[in-house]
Design a protein that fits this description.
The protein is of the alpha/beta class and about 500 residues long. It has a domain at about 15-245 and about 265-290 and about 325-345: TIM Barrel. The protein contains 11 helices and 29 strands. Helix 4 packs across helix 5 and helix 7 (about 220-230) packs parallel to helix 9 (about 255-270). The structure holds alpha-L-arabinofuranose. Alpha-L-arabinofuranose binds near residues 173 and 331.
Length: about 500
């Protein structure tokens, strides 16, 4: 199959946020314990963190790591997770339908240490379920205040004389949902959101406050929140999980994320017309591929190559929303829906590990708008299917698949391109979504002068169902270098593969 890409340096789609590609850790199932923190493990460092997980996370370079939840945050009392470990008491966690014990050994200090060890930035979700604005403000005091006060002194007693300087705070998690402890209507939430923001910003006015948005299903939620809390928030969040068993159908679902983000952008523009001008950013504060497993199955999704291709298509899409998206958090880092899976004596990089690593390491700050000409496919369009019913007993979504309409003209070759203004490097990331055919592609570079070589990184495996397991990494990344002489390149993208091409240019911006 043939294709043609035109990348024009003068066609800039926007600037990418430095914090665009982040991850998420939550105290559910095996994510934090023992995935990250397991003092008894022979693989743990002196502080109880899994060394292998830290090493891999450093390679993944998540910009921010959101914590402690998720559903878990709507119940979490942060004060039970600080101070000497021997004084921390085990409680029952109400994070979801499963009875779980929380020993509080991984609390605020441990989280900050984890961020330091992995060179990522903290992003905390406060308890807006059964928590209060005051508790949240005291958490800001513990983390960020430098005076001689109760909570800043408690931090000092742990040896942390300098404030942690946590800048990003999200007020609650999916607070619109019945499954959430302390679920609220939009009018109730928007009211307490203002109180949380007021109290927390009084302690530290430099923090950024992110509100819980919805982006879907209830058309009024976001507008009510934006309208009532406009002056008190800096951003608004949305969560989206996608994925399907059907190979092509899974790619069609990526458009769901586009729909949610576009709806939120529209709502922000509409409400802004009646307000004082300010930028409210979007945070896709949970996203991922999730369709096989429910909470009762430990959220233990084992990803295949198809899921990695879908995941890479999501990341391409996120770049296209660079004008409004400030943060995204892939959910989650370890074990539950994880980039990594761990067991007592080993770790495996899931298939989705590779696209995450490529995007977070290679994409530049200037997002370009390439033109792509290639053959397309049709698939089922899940976006406009009515909200499915959720069967609590089976922990499963029910829907009548036969009634779903088709969507057409989705290109087999999905492409993004960025340029890094510091290094002068151009990056092109392609996903060949064809299950059988290679794509032979002409890449024309306009207004770009290249130096003489390109580095290519190709993620692929034997077939789209292949997975990575502890004893067998079937999906791998290969790297090679090509000499390139002209600004018209000819490139072969193998069937069902992700390719990142990095080219040194002579351009300056
Ligand atoms: O990722 C698991 C759960 O999914 C999170 O706790 C919640 O925010 C979402 O519903």
């Amino acid at each position: 199959m043939k294709a043609h890409i035109i990348i024009d340096f003068s066609r800039c789609a926007g600037r990418k946020s430095k914090r665009l590609f982040g991850s998420f850790i939550e105290h559910v199932h095996q994510c934090v314990y023992p995935g990250i923190f397991d003092a008894k493990s022979h693989l743990a460092d002196e502080d109880g963190f899994r060394k292998d997980v830290i090493e891999e996370t450093k390679k993944l370079k998540p910009a921010t790591i959101r914590w402690p939840g998720g559903n878990f945050s709507s119940w979490y009392r942060w004060k039970n997770g600080i101070g000497p470990k021997e004084n921390r008491k085990t409680e029952i966690s109400y994070a979801d339908d499963i009875i779980r014990e929380e020993n509080h050994l991984f609390g605020t200090n441990e989280y900050i240490k984890f961020c330091r060890k992995t060179e990522s930035t903290p992003y905390i979700t406060v308890n807006a379920g059964d928590g209060t604005p005051r508790e949240a403000a005291e958490w800001v005091e513990y983390c960020n205040y430098n005076g001689e006060t109760l909570y800043s002194n408690l931090r000092r007693e742990t040896g942390e004389t300098r404030p942690f300087g946590v800048k990003y705070w999200e007020i609650g998690n999916e607070i619109y949902g019945d499954w959430q402890i302390g679920a609220k209507k939009a009018s109730q939430y928007s009211r307490i959101l203002v109180e949380f923001s007021k109290a927390m910003k009084r302690i530290d006015p430099s923090i950024k406050i992110v509100a819980v948005g919805m982006g879907k299903h209830d058309p009024d939620w976001d507008r009510i929140i934006l309208d009532s809390a406009w002056n008190y928030i800096d951003g608004i969040s949305v969560h989206t999980y996608i994925g399907r068993h059907g190979y092509l159908d899974a790619f069609g679902q990526v458009l769901t994320i586009a729909d949610h983000l576009r709806k939120m952008e529209d709502d922000i523009i509409r409400i802004s017309q009646q307000k004082q001008p300010k930028k409210i950013f979007l945070a896709l504060s949970e996203f991922g591929v999730w369709y096989r497993k429910g909470h009762k199955d430990n959220l233990d999704e084992i990803y295949n190559l198809k899921d990695a291709l879908v995941f890479a298509s999501i990341l391409n899409l996120l770049l296209r929303f660079c004008r409004s998206l400030e943060f995204t958090h892939q959910s989650m880092l370890v074990n539950c829906l994880g980039l990594l899976r761990t067991k007592q004596d080993g770790l495996v990089r899931q298939t989705i590990y590779y696209p995450f690593m490529l995007f977070s390491n290679l994409t530049g700050d200037m997002v370009l708008a390439p033109d792509v000409f290639c053959e397309s496919f049709s698939c089922r369009d899940y976006r406009y299917f009515p909200w499915p019913t959720f069967d609590v007993k089976k922990d499963n979504f029910q829907m009548d698949e036969s009634k779903i309409p088709l969507i057409h003209n989705l290109p087999y070759l999905d492409v993004s391109s960025t340029y890094d203004t510091k290094s002068g490097q151009l990056c092109v990331i392609t996903v060949n979504r064809h299950p059988e055919k290679d794509i032979n592609c002409k890449i024309e570079l306009h207004n770009i002068k290249i130096k003489n070589y390109a580095d290519a990184f190709v993620v692929n495996g034997p077939d789209v169902d292949a997975i990575n397991d502890y004893d067998n990494e079937r999906i791998k990344m290969e790297q090679y270098q090509e000499k390139v002489k002209t600004e018209n390149l000819q490139w072969n993208f193998p069937a069902h593969s992700i390719t990142a091409i990095k080219i040194q240019t002579r351009n300056q911006k």
